[in-house]
Amino acid sequence: MKYLTFRRMATFAGAGAGGALFVLLGLPLPLLLGPMAACLIAALIGVPMQDAGVMGTFMRTFLGVAVGASITPEALRHMPDFALSLAFVPLFIALIGAIGYPLFRRVFGFNHATAWYAAMPGGLQDMLVFGEEAGGDPRALSLIHATRILVIVTAAPLIMSAYWGADLTQAPGRPASEIAPLQLLLMVIAGVAGWKIAARMRLFGASILGPMILTAALSLGGIITTRPPAEIIWAAQFFIGIAVGVKYAGITWRELRVDVGAGVVYAALLALISLGFFEVVTLTGVARPLDAFLAFLPGGQAEMVVIAIIAGADLAYVVSHHLLRIILVIVLAPIVARLFRRAG
């Protein structure tokens, strides 16, 4: 237990140093990318690390609360405007699978289950569970998906800052001192209750989806009237950065060369596919360029929510696309994988 405590403390210390350095350098999303980079470097040099455990999961609930609080009656009235854009999501997934599966199967030599679930842009934990049950390599899947998220989440802020001049160092909301204590209490209750209810129902992404649904109901009822304070979103970024970085703990040279290498190549191809759909959706005029960019980047759900909040994007639009993508992958990926196996 002492060893576990030491590893966690060392992880927090390294992540804190990384975040502080990124703040001093004025880099975008310093409290997300700083801890992520620090934990990645520590993993590569063999420093023993441990994730934040239940505390990290608890902090994710506030991202769900932030999204749910953005779902107001006014936002709901605009939901039908997303229909055309959402219609591109199934095609987006199909194209990703058509390119990703042969890449992992033929080029990198992974077995069928590993190649299929590595190619699917779903939630990391869901793809690990499905892949392992189907006979895939869970360590390879973990590293490939972690690399996909790492590359996309690192590249997105740089593109947004360079292309749109987005200020990603700004506060992601009002300070806690300006929010009524009752509202803060309601948000904590909605976060924890929504998480636990969703987990009991075995919903995917329970720590985000559950709080989002419960908070949305309270927001539509006029009970929760504000998003979580800036300090909470900053803290959530810190823990998410740790969660991505520690996935590389204990990595070997072969894993770095094969699994991470495959993840980097795949992430680059995903970025090109995403940019193509971004162009098409932008031309339809159904969304602002920045919103469309974030909606069609297949990063992790929590990571994309953080970036959308900081960038001031339309959360309802961005999150609806990511939810549809993940739902379709979770529902259809196991079915299509079995069909592929029979055909082979």
Structural description of this entry:
With 344 residues, the protein is mainly alpha-helical. 75% of the residues lie in helices and 0% in strands. α8 (124-133) runs antiparallel to α9 (138-164), α10 (181-200) crosses α11 and α13 (253-284) packs antiparallel against α14 (289-295). It is globular, with a radius of gyration of 19 Å. The mean pLDDT is 88.
Task: Summarize, please.
The chain is mostly helical.
Topology:
Layout: H1 2-24, H2 30-44, H3 54-69, H4 73-77, H5 83-86, H6 88-107, H7 112-119, H8 124-133, H9 138-164, H10 181-200, H11 206-220, H12 230-245, H13 253-284, H14 289-295, H15 301-311, H16 315-343
Helix pairs in contact: 1-2, 2-12, 3-10, 3-11, 3-12, 3-15, 6-7, 6-13, 7-8, 8-9, 9-13, 10-11, 13-14, 14-16, 15-16
Structure class: mainly alpha
Question: What sort of overall outline do the alpha carbons produce when their principal axes are compared?
Answer: globular
Secondary-structure element string:
HHHHHHHHHHHHHHHH
| Approximate strand percentage | under 5%
Number of strands: 0
